[in-house]
Every structure is written in C-alpha cells, then in structure tokens.
Amino acid sequence: MLIGSGEHTYEWIDSWANVPDGESARTGHAHHGLVVTEAGAILTFHPGEPVALVFEDDGNL
After folding, report:
1. In which band, very low, low, confident or very high, does the pLDDT at 25 lie, cut at 50, 70 and 90?
2. Which of 3, 43, 45, 60 keeps 20 to 30 A from 20, CA to CA?
3. Per the domain annotation, does 32 fall within a domain?
C-alpha cells in the first residue's frame, strides 16, 4: 500500500518491524515520529513504554 503524496509517497509494509512477542510490543506503531540516520537506522519511540527503538533497514531491532 502506498501512503502520502508527491515526493512524500512511501510504501507501507505491514509486517516490516521485527519486534519481540507481546501485546505491548505489537500495538501502536502506526504513528509519526520516525527518523532515519545517516547510517540508515530508523529511530522511533515505543507508544506505551518509555523506550527508544532503533531498527535496521530490514526491520530488526
């Protein structure tokens, strides 16, 4: 599925993030607040816990 418009169009990959099993880890990640570093890491925050998440470009933590 494509989301956004113009030069800000992105492909949504529903099962991209490889997070640990658990209800808290699986909910709430469809939100803004993502940053991509120069090295390609994707940074975001857990919506229900005070935790920063750092993903590799393949979705692994």
Report:
1. low
2. 3
3. yes
- In this model, does residue 52 exceed pLDDT 80? yes
61 lies in a domain? Answer: no
**15 within a domain of the structure (yes/no):** yes
Is 60 a domain residue?
no
CA distances from 28 to 25, 40, 51 (A): 8, 23, 13
Mean pLDDT computed over 21-45: 78
**pLDDT value at position 14?**
82
Asked whether the CA dihedral 2, 56, 34, 21 is positive or negative, the reply is positive
